Amino acid sequence: MRRALCLWLALAAPAVADPLAALNRALLGADDAAAWRALSESWPALRSQAQRQAWTQALAALSAEHCGKDAPLTLPAWLPRLTLELAQRDMPLARAYRVVLSGRGALEDARLLDAQGHDLLRGGLLEREDGQGFRLESADLSRPLAAGAYRLQLSAAGRQWQAELALPEVANLDWLSRSPLAVSRLPPPRAACAQPWLEQSLLRRSDYGFVWWRRRELGEALRWPPSRGELWQSVALVRAEARGQLVLRLAHRQVGPR
């Protein structure tokens, strides 16, 4: 697997000023921590579609091997738990993408910057949960979430922390069907990662706030509670991996009236 990937990287990049050289050396030397660092560092220098495709293949191979838990990312003591979700949300006649940051700790500000410096979390609403938890959900993003290197910046009470994240693309997911509301295609299995699961929820139509939520295993029946007013129903297929101590979730969500 690694030999084939390294050959692909070598063919994708020219011999002169090869931006993927450090990544190739790390993969050949089985130095996963260095490979993760090289992924983030090499992205801004990639110039061709072939190089970007090779980078994406390397990211997929690394995340599948240990489910991303070997990435050299350690959370600060004031932020003991952190989850980043990249989601596609399909509604009748509409599709949008969202980024959700959640966890525990005294978070005051968060930014997720792409290679051009655009903040995907700009305009998001920060909500406190049970005094210690938080949830920050971005505004609707009309464009798919591109693969690449992102910088996550967090701050609270004068303390700051940042990390470089190599993230996969989230675009045009077809994991769920809308009618009937069911799983249509599972993402490829990865032995090192937990099996994907389903999340059901009922949302207020006014602000999409949660009214009811349940987690279901694949194959489990989607049972709903009795109807209570004007609500949307939502089903999400969720795949989880990691970036070191950070939990990364990819989700395809179908939302519609009950």
Average pLDDT over all residues: 90
Question: How many E-type strands?
Answer: 13
Approximate helicity band: 10-25%
Proportion of strand residues: 35-45%
Query: What is the radius of gyration?
Result: 19 Å
State the low-pLDDT regions, or none.
none
The spatial strand order of the largest sheet comes to 4-5-2-1-13-12-10-11
Shape: globular
Structural class call reads alpha+beta
**Span between N and C termini?**
46 Å
Sheet with the most strands, sense and barrel status: 8 strands, mixed
Listing every helix as H and every strand as E from the N terminus to the C terminus, the arrangement reads: HHHHEEEEEEEEEEEEE
Query: How many helix segments?
Result: 4
Q: What does this entry look like structurally?
A:
- The chain is of the alpha+beta class and about 260 residues long.
- It contains four helices and 13 strands.
- β1 (about 80-90) and β2 form a beta hairpin.
- About 30% of the residues are buried.
Structural features:
alpha+beta; single chain; 38% strand; globular; 3-stranded antiparallel β-sheet; 258 residues; 8-stranded mixed β-sheet
Question: Could you write a compact summary of the structure shown?
Answer:
With 258 residues, the protein is of the alpha+beta class. The protein has helices at residues 2-12, 21-28, 32-42, 49-66; strands at residues 81-91, 94-104, 109-113, 125-129, 133-137, 148-156, 159-167, 176-177, 182-183, 197-204, 210-216, 231-243, 246-257.
